[in-house]
Amino acid sequence: MAKDNEVVGPKLWMWRKKRTEPWHITGGYSQPDHKQTLCGRRNIDATDVVYDPRDIVPYKGMTDMKNYCKNCLNMMVYEAMSEQILFSQIKVPGGGTFGETVLTKYLKRKSPPIELNNPPALKDANSAKAGDVAGSPAPKKYKLMTKSQLEKKEREKSSRKPKTPRSKKPKSQRSKQQKIDKGDATTTTPEVVKVDKTKSAAQIIGPKRVLGNSSTDSQDQS
Ligand SMILES: [Zn+2]
């Protein structure tokens, strides 16, 4: 059966009779009625459960070809790229992936051009209200990052952390020393203020600094 459109096409579904057998594929251009698998070797009952490839294939542990019927995978070259892309991580014999060996062939092809058909009228296009199909907002800080990029950033952040306490420690020590000096000064300042009420703020601050810098001076003055 010819493809109407090589990029977008009818959905594929996964099916298997027993848990122990590899996954077959149905649907798409080849088996629109879901009565058989793409390989044509198995019949599917109308009451059988078929699964969305999105929830089966592109996951850890599922990239091995032994999980799938090879004949069904072979038949997928007649399906749309939108469906094939979900199988792109499956490893193929001889190295590489299904995506590399099959999908890129389409993408690199110059002739004949990728086959496209007329778009449906917008009234017939699959549509929704934006709010109805909206998900939860992405965290602002890490928008448009892959998980590995985010982990790398967080690793860099944590490796930077030890540096900041080091720089902070001397500061706190300094401030403590200053506080001690100030404490000595403040104990003496009330006396100074009482004595020199006529003095301006600047004049009062002046002697304070002298007192603060060296306790010996204040002792000399008293
Ligand atoms: Zn099959």
Structure explained in plain terms:
- Helix 5 (163-195) packs across helix 6 (201-213) and helix 6 packs across helix 7.
- The longest helix has 33 residues, at 163-195.
- This protein folds into two domains: 1-117, no CATH class; 170-221, no CATH class.
- The chain is mainly alpha-helical.
- It has helices spanning 70-75, 81-84, 98-108, 147-160, 163-195, 201-213, 215-221; strands at 12-15, 24-27.
- Strands 1-2 form a two-stranded antiparallel ribbon.
- The protein is built from seven helices and two strands.
- The radius of gyration is 37 Å and the shape is elongated.
- Mean pLDDT is 81; it is low at 182-193 and 210-222.
- 40% of the residues lie in helices and 4% in strands.
- Bound molecules: zinc ion.
